[in-house]
Amino acid sequence: MSKPRFPLSRRRFLTASAAVGASYLLPGMASRLWAAGSDAPEKATVRVGFIPLTDCAPLVMAAEKGFDKKYGLTLQLSKEASWAGVRDKLTSGELDAAHALYGMIYALQLGVAGPQHAMANLMTLNNNGQAITLSNQLRSDGVTDLAGLKGAVAAKPAGTYTFAHTFPTSTHAMWLYYWLASGGIDPFSDVRTVVVPPPQMVMNMKIGNMSGYCVGEPWNQRAISENVGFTAVTSQQIWPDHPEKVLATRAAWVKDNPHTARALTAAVMEAARWIDASDDNRRETAQVIAGRGYLNIRPETIVGRMLGQYENGLGQRWQDAHAMRFFGDGSVSFPWLSDGMWFLTQQKRWGLLKEDPDYLAVAGQVNRIDIWQQAADAVGGIAAPGGTLRSSTLIDGTVWDGSDPAAYAAGFAIKR
User: What's the whole-model pTM score?
Assistant: First the structure.
């Protein structure tokens, strides 16, 4: 695996040395120096969009706990109704940055299903924490797992069953397609798929518009609470410790506002570290994000899965070893190049990309390891991983390590 190259900021070193008369910084000193000196953010207020999902938590807590102020910013959070709305406002400049779908920003980078826009992933906001919910109608028909679903689908005309995800290039579309295909179900010819905004998932299942959906929390747990569905599989069962949402912006915005990009990333990174520091912090986070201005839902619908306490609606309960994480030891927030490359392989697998791109080059353009490193330096106590690629084994036994993405994309039995 290649080693990441993280150049030391000479300006930071010289500024710090002059200020404190030493060749090292006290904890938190770097951010105060940056905010007060020539490296101060170019923008004092940053407008950041989010969708009401549990994984918007680092953005919310960065604003609620004052981490934004520590780095010389005021985060102005904007609650959005759909991922299409996030995309449009982000690319038009109405939003400076956003809680965004990983695959969406790669699709924008390559002009998949719309105009091309050069994008930037400043950090990963979370790992894990999504799920695929199946309807209680399927349960009544005897379907409780993927094998049972395969039998039900095979017994009906193609397209009888409808499944929803959140956006054509979303992580949720990729988890749904991957899971169905791992059980021998072609997501494009055997079933019908539709796009539904996350907050509308439970209601649409309740009225019978779909048999299943893939979405983030709290909308899987809420289906159980309202007795309309059950969790068939979690996304971490599909890919343990998978990347999920990212802190996204336009490449041009980073070029024009490099200090703001660093400060924004540092504020959100420190908030993510705070959330993961204790269960009490996670409980407090659940209380805050449940509020009307954010998810507008009962806190108890959020807190269980935030703590890794899962139930599937079929009588099984467990403590999940790969529950939603926001920071970990820093490896969660790190914008691994192999993570971005994986979404490109799936876009190629499903015909969204007609040709193989230069996977590593595209990932290197989008995933701004340089900004992440500057932010990590500002926060302090965060070590970069030893490389830019990581290895994982997915639900079907395939190993993804970024070493041969074209062969990986072409190697699936079910593809378009």
Answer: 0.91
